Each structure stands twice: as structure tokens, then as C-alpha cells.
Amino acid sequence: MSEAYFRVESGALGPEENFLSLDDILMSHEKLPVRTETPMPRLGAFFLERSGGAETDHAIPQGSKLELPLWLTKGLFDNKRRILSVELPKIYQQGWRTVFSADANVVDLHKLGPHFYGFGSQLLHFDNPENADISQCLLQGFEEHEMGCLWRPAQGRLWNHGGCWGDWKPKETRRCQSMLKGSGNSHCPPQENQRFLVC
Length: 199
Known about the structure:
The chain has helices at 22-28, 70-76, 94-102, 109-112, 116-123, 131-160, 165-181, 190-193, and strands spanning 31-36, 65-69, 84-86. It is mainly α and 199 residues long. The protein has a three-stranded antiparallel β-sheet with strand order 2-1-3.
């Protein structure tokens, strides 16, 4: 029996989305707050509340705040012509980044945005002075939140089998860091080193 849909891996963490991936298609339709930097003629018909009303050309005036899908925003964004300026969504602003830096595990990422990491990495394409902070937040959030989901079952297994989690985790963390840095302090054969790169 064949499946109706063969899963295509997401390309959202790369430079472009994979348009054959349902996850990337859904992520590219996430809304992004923008402000128009120039008048946009004939687009007001799509945004009736923002158009001039009595104007016949249905122009969107300069300075209008809109919410556009990511795919349209990426198509209209141009540094040289300054058609749009992209504003950060609420969950990527400083207040939420402070929450993530304190403890990423207390935030329900799926409730806030099901494509948090992919959408956040796509935000880095737009010129924003906070891009470095956003990328650090994404990396730190992934390490704490997602790796924590992997460590918790291991922690339970260690305690169930009489292991000492407090001694084991720092040793494994140092070992993995030394392998990633290539310091050569690890005592594992090279094929085993690749197995531990998830640390």
C-alpha cells in the first residue's frame, strides 16, 4: 500500500524554503507585520481598510501598517528601494527573548508559533539591528528547549538504573564540546564521534 504523501524535508533553516514541503508552505504563509515606506498603487483593493477609500487607484498610503505573509514580504523587500520595513513579530521581540534567555522550557512554542525556529531563521533575511540577538535566541532556545526534551528521558533512565546524573551530564557535555572543537581530548574512535555531535 503506497502513501498518498511522501514527506519532503523542510528547507526552512537554509537560505530558501523547500516549496515541496508542506511544513515550509505553511510557514511561508505566517503573517509578518510590515510598514509601507512608499505608496503602493493598486494594492489597496486587497487591503480595503488601508486604501484611500475614495481614491480610484486604490493605493496603500506610505506609513501604513499591514500584516503580509512571509512569501510576499520576501518578494517585496528590497534594501535599495525601501518599499517595506519589516517589524518583528511579538514572540521575537526583546521581552520574549528575555523570557527565552531565562528559561526556554516554560514557553509553549507550538502555541506561540508552530514554526518558531524556521520562521525565526527566515526573519534574519531582513535587515534588522536585532538580527544577532534573534539568532542567539533561536540557538539558545533550541539548545535548552529541544535538547532538554532529549535529556529528560536519559536523566530518568540514569536515575532508574542507579546512575548519578549530576556527575554524568557535565562529563558528557565537556566530552562533546571537546569533540566539536576538535581538541582531540576524546578517547572515542572517529566513527563514534559523529554519534555524539547532537550534544
